[in-house]
Amino acid sequence: MKSEIDIAFKLLRAALEGHSLETAELEASQWWSLFRLLQKNHVEALCFDALVGAKVPREVLMPWLSEREKAADWYRHQEKVQTEVTSAMKKHGIETLVLKGTHLAQYYPRPEAREFGDLDLYFYDRHDEADTVARKELCVAVSNDSHHHTKYNYHGVTVESHYDFLNTHYPTSNRRYESLLKELAPSPTFEILFLLRHMAGHFAASRITLRDLVDWTLTCRALHDKADCTLIQETLDHYGMGPFVATLGTIAEKRLGVQLPLHDEADRQTLVRVEHDMVYGNPLSDHPSDGFGRLGWKIRRWRALAWKRRMVYNDSGVSLFFSSLTSHAEKPHSILHKM
Q1: pTM summary value
Q2: How many CB atoms neighbour CB 216 within 10 A?
Q3: Contact 153, 135 (CB under 8 A)
Q4: Crossing angle for the helix pair 242-256 and 188-205, to the nearest 10 degrees
Q5: How many CA atoms does the CB half-sphere of 235 hold within 13 Å?
Q6: pLDDT tens digits, residue range 51-105?
Q7: How far apart are CA 141 and CA 153, in angstroms?
């Protein structure tokens, strides 16, 4: 029998290609394990579509179907909330750019199969006005606990109102990258470069999941012919993200059967390490949510994830360390609490 990670990738590939998984002879306990693994990677709704014909025990199949339907309902609810928020802004002449989430869903075989949580919006430097509209017309309380967005809850959806695309406090190089993004937005080149840096930040700070891999793969496949690939490659080289992109591209090609133009071949050792970290996480992925236990966990995580930072940033180690300290000092809440 193939390993669990191999079956997970085969199921994901089948879902993206629109066909059923070849017969997989698994015990009920193995199906449960696979289902939970896909849940942790936020792709169980997507992968359900590849189960037709697979001999999945009913006690696993029915909860899996339920998760698929919940994802579809949540997607429709998010779309409704997005329409109401953007319509409120439009009445005041505020233009909205939707980031990630429902925007990325358009590249999926079924948009409602793309699972997500927050609604990320950008208002082209009019975020203060947008927050005022939210308070007065949507009747919400707006929080300012983050460096680069405010947030509020509207009909059960957390809406993040971004005043920049990246956290420009960390790393320092994000300030230059942010300037480039603002010059390019909105455009296919912007989408690719924004999504890449956003993913790189999550990868370096904790982990990315199979959903992130699918987001990247489908976005690149849809947009690379429309984007300025020369500028993208120059940006990858300038900011030291080549190893990260090479690894993602190699995984997409070997595991998902999608050839992406923006990568070189990754070495096998790095490939295996990133795959395992992506699918399973690492011992430091789970953490205390509050208190000094979280501070100690952050210090341990910082040391353990040095190999990831080297794959996505060419900032010096000293620069990364002190910009991280400065970032937390400006928002002390982030040191001891989960953001």
Answers
A1: 0.89
A2: 24
A3: no
A4: 100
A5: 24
A6: 987 889 999 999 999 999 999 999 999 999 999 999 999 999 999 999 998 999 9
A7: 8
